[in-house]
Specification:
- The protein has one domain (3-158): Cytochrome c/b562 (Four Helix Bundle (Hemerythrin (Met), subunit A)), CATH 1.20.120.
- Helices cover 74% and strands 0% of the residues.
- The chain has helices spanning 3-52, 57-61, 66-82, 105-108, 110-133, 136-158.
- Helix 1 runs antiparallel to helix 3.
Length: 167
């Protein structure tokens, strides 16, 4: 093979390799992002269970304490602070159909997305502060706002619908 032809073939193979590596990176990024979102969901579910309680005192105690809520809220704030880093360009539902529910608006309206992540962080910190008081009604009030404005505020704008047939 002539030198210039070999160079072109090598360059084309390199571009193909980089494209495949980029697709692998995007898929790994989405898996990581989904794990982070699942962790946030687990924290909110646990706080909800704590707030609901149980009539049986032993079962209610197993649902945790205000200290546990404070720990979870602090973890949520930490994740919220890093949340934008889990959404690099090229990982939207348009880029990878069926792999993610992240709408392209995350990148076209990035200022709003960054503000939504900051709201989640702020409300998570408020939840930790409320939990430190051990006042269950205060914790519940902040948790309600966190669900509506923290999680819901972002999901309503930046998350697409579940695919048909998904649970």
């Amino acid at each position: 093979m002539k030198g210039w032809l070999r160079s072109i073939a090598c360059a084309a193979a390199g571009v193909g390799f980089l494209a495949a590596a980029g697709a692998g990176f995007a898929a790994d990024t989405i898996k990581t992002r989904q794990a982070v979102m699942a962790e946030l969901g687990a924290h909110t579910k646990a706080v909800g269970a704590f707030l609901k309680g149980n009539e049986d005192p032993r079962k209610s105690a197993a649902l945790g304490s205000a200290g546990d809520v404070e720990f979870r809220a602090t973890a949520m704030a930490s994740l919220a602070k890093r949340l934008p880093s889990f959404f690099p360009k090229g990982t939207s539902s348009s880029d990878m159909p069926g792999k993610t529910r992240a709408k392209p608006e995350i990148w076209t309206r990035s200022d709003k997305f960054m503000a939504a992540a900051a709201t989640l962080e702020n409300l998570s910190n408020k939840l930790a502060e409320a939990a430190a008081t051990e006042d269950k009604s205060r914790i519940a009030a902040v948790m309600k706002t966190l669900g509506k404005d923290g999680c819901g505020g972002c999901h309503a704008t930046f998350r697409g619908p579940k695919p048909k047939g998904a649970m």
